[in-house]
From TrEMBL:
Record-linked InterPro entries: DIOX_N, IPNS-like_FE2OG_OXY, IPNS-like_sf, Oxoglu/Fe-dep_dioxygenase_dom
The protein, known as: Fe2OG dioxygenase domain-containing protein
Species per Swiss-Prot/TrEMBL record: Mikania micrantha
Fe2OG dioxygenase domain residues: 169-275
GO molecular function, one term: dioxygenase activity
Keyword entries, A-Z: Iron, Metal-binding, Oxidoreductase
Pfam families: 2OG-FeII_Oxy (PF03171), DIOX_N (PF14226)
Family: Belongs to the iron/ascorbate-dependent oxidoreductase family.
Taxonomic superkingdom: Eukaryota
Length: 316
């Protein structure tokens, strides 16, 4: 069953990264406003070429078009590889049997502990690994640049996240997503991605032109009000994760969002820039005081991520 269409589209702030070198303070101020009011914004002129973005979409479609038995040969192990439809439920409180999407995860390219990336065979998809590695490196660079501006938006030194051990060896994951157009007949509301906030630090999302992404700006209020996020050609959609909310004592928002099926096939690519797993995430001194004490205890980044990921995959 499809939900009724949403009538209202959200007008998100647009951050132009091309002027960050000459006007970094102004850009940081704009980011601060976007992070406190929305937790979402568009990032334009980010330096990732349009042709590379299109190449990644092309290669992603090639992979997801393979027979299921071929994709399952690269089945998810240690957080990397393929997950079929219904394997994940981002909102375990729902009665849904899982989210109507299939995914492929690529972790840090240099390896990270037990994480060893899985790749389709060169014979089957000759350009796949090269394109994905190039994109991973480019979007990681954008994410680091953005993190410096976010630090400045918090009145911190631009290399703050490097100094505290968050991005000295970042825990970046590229998540390719495919939402099928067709779905089984059911009386239950089906979600492409059920309602959730991202777990980590910063997410950089590239989408095709098919709608479906929605946000709920007030996640604790009922009833929830959902607004559509429009596609902006060439732009990344940026949103903050829960660890950024913990760092800032809820000054910066980790916003609830979901993807609703529209009856059309949809592709997207999310890059999660998360801290080094050994980084301790605790309230910034500038974000708490006697009248606003820390809302969250310090936590090791890797422990927090593991608990959230396990809940999404093993609660079905």
């Amino acid at each position: 069953m499809y939900p009724p269409p949403m009538a209202k589209s959200l007008e998100l702030p647009v951050i132009d990264l091309s002027s960050s070198n000459s006007n970094s303070i102004s850009i940081a101020n704009s980011i601060r406003k976007a992070c406190t009011e929305y937790g979402f914004f568009y990032l334009i002129n980010h330096g990732v070429e349009e042709q590379l973005l299109q190449n990644v979409f092309v290669e992603s479609r090639k992979f997801f078009s393979l027979p299921l038995e071929e994709k399952m040969k690269l089945s998810r192990k240690e957080d990397v590889g393929f997950s079929p439809i219904y394997a994940e439920n981002l909102d375990p409180s729902t009665t849904s049997k899982g989210d109507l999407k299939e995914t492929f995860h690529i972790g840090p390219l240099e390896g990270y502990g037990s994480h060893v990336n899985q790749w389709p065979s060169i014979e089957r998809l000759p350009s796949w690994r090269f394109v994905m590695e190039e994109y991973y490196q480019k979007v990681l660079s954008v994410g680091k640049r953005l993190s410096s501006l976010i630090a400045m938006a918090l009145n911190l030194e631009d290399d703050f996240f490097e100094k505290v051990g968050a991005l000295d060896k970042p825990y970046g994951f590229l998540r390719l997503l495919h939402y099928p157009g067709k779905m089984e007949a059911t009386e239950e509301v089906v979600y492409g991605a059920s309602a959730h906030s991202d777990y980590g630090m910063i997410t950089l999302l590239a989408t095709d032109s098919v709608p479906g992404l929605q946000v709920c700006r007030e996640k604790v209020k009922q009833p929830q009000i959902w607004e559509d996020v429009k596609h902006v050609k060439g732009a990344f959609i940026i949103n903050l994760g829960d660890m950024m909310e913990r760092w800032t004592n809820c000054l910066f928002r980790s916003t609830l969002h979901r993807v609703m099926p529209t009856g059309k096939e949809r592709y997207s690519m999310a890059f999660f820039l998360d801290p080094n797993p050994d980084c301790m995430v605790e309230c910034l001194k500038s974000c708490c005081n006697d009248s606003s004490p820390p809302r969250f205890p310090p936590i090791r980044s890797g422990d927090y991520l593991r608990a959230r990921i396990n809940a999404a995959y093993y609660s079905l």
